[in-house]
Design goal:
mainly alpha; 17 helices
């Protein structure tokens, strides 16, 4: 909730304080770049201070930076605050996902991640609706304040609870690079980056496009809320299907559904059709988290779960950086141009992704 509540209003808020369309792509992309780069060090941080301190510190930093983004008037201050939010989330997310992996046996990872993302999908459902409502009634800064409060509310839930598993006794960035250079891990990383580049285009430019079509901020929130609802529906069945060895075909379906929906956005001109597009996109997008997490952690020893999830999350966020940045380079031509990038990116993901899934599964026996 500490980010989903901001999603439907972020691009619009940046536009209203003076950022151009291309600049919005750069700012949103830099947020994700900051997150992705910090995630590369998440395993080293966990080994140095422990997961609990890492998680608690990241939640506090996340709340403070969101508050700064809400209070900021100057464009530079808001951009820096959002970059800092990305860094805080980069510290937070990989150890959280590694803890989920540690809570189950390798055979039950599909069920564990499916349950985890089912819970987080309620945030993807409720967060955008709440953010759109708060922005329409109170103002565009309200979702940022709500996001900071949600981050603070998570602290007591973690402070007194035992953490399953443990960080490796020794870890270094060089060890992580060696792990990342493994062929199967590198292929999966590229596949994740490409898929989430498409997602970055959708998240950044859809609110601006929908606003041009006459959709209010409340309806834009509902587009993302419906997307979140379909995302939630997909979690449990995806976990079961991936566990049964259907990752390759699920990946193709996810790529086709997300890239195809983003590519079709310029043909959609009414609010009901935008809501339907959100539902289709959410169905396809809901396949990705469990599928990629299962493939990344398959055959990995428990002491490398944080490193594995660092690859997973860093590839996601570098993709969410690349998508808005690429969109920004073509947005000067027209607002519809970024959505057309889904075709070449989607084709590249379809070429790399299923092969990576197949080889990874084959290597693991």
């Amino acid at each position: 909730m500490s980010w989903q509540v901001v999603v439907p209003i972020l691009s619009l808020h940046l536009a209203h304080i003076g950022f151009g369309i291309a600049e919005i792509g750069v700012v949103v992309g830099t947020f994700s770049l900051s997150m992705g780069l910090v995630e590369l060090q998440a395993g080293v941080i966990a080994a140095a201070i422990g997961r609990r301190r890492q998680l608690l510190g990241a939640l506090v930093a996340n709340a403070l930076c969101l508050g700064a983004a809400a209070a900021g008037e100057a464009r530079a201050l808001v951009a820096v605050a959002l970059t800092a939010v990305g860094a805080a989330r980069g510290v937070l997310i990989p150890p959280l996902h590694a803890t989920v992996a540690d809570s189950a046996t390798p055979e039950d990872h599909g069920r564990a991640f499916g349950t985890f993302w089912l819970c987080t999908s309620f945030a993807a459902l409720a967060g955008p609706a709440l953010g759109g409502f708060a922005a329409s009634r109170i103002g565009e800064r309200a979702p940022f304040v709500a996001a900071a409060l949600f981050s603070l509310a998570a602290i007591p839930l973690l402070a007194g609870r035992p953490m399953p598993g443990r960080a490796p006794a020794r870890a270094s960035f060089r060890d992580f690079i060696v792990y990342l250079s493994t062929a199967s891990v590198a292929r999966l990383g590229v596949a994740i980056l490409l898929c989430y580049s498409v997602a970055g285009i959708w998240t950044t430019f859809l609110p601006l496009y929908a606003s041009r079509q006459g959709a209010s901020v409340l309806f834009i929130g509902w587009i993302f809320a419906i997307q979140g609802g379909m995302y939630a529906v997909m979690q449990v069945p995806t976990g079961r299907l991936v566990a049964r060895g259907h990752g390759r075909w699920l990946m193709l379906a996810a790529i086709a559904g997300t890239a195809g929906t983003v590519l079709a956005v310029p043909l959609v001109h009414t609010v009901p059709l935008l809501l339907a597009a959100g539902a289709v996109y959410g169905t396809a997008w809901g396949i990705m988290p469990v599928m990629f997490a299962m493939l990344v952690t398959r055959g990995v020893p428990p002491d490398r779960y944080t490193a594995a999830m660092s690859v997973f999350n860093s590839a996601i966020d570098l993709g969410l950086f690349a998508g808005p940045l690429l969109g920004a380079t073509v947005a000067r031509a027209s607002l519809t141009a970024p959505f057309l990038l889904a075709l070449p990116i989607g084709l590249a993901a379809a070429a790399v992704g299923p092969a990576a899934a197949f080889r990874r599964s084959g290597q693991d026996g």
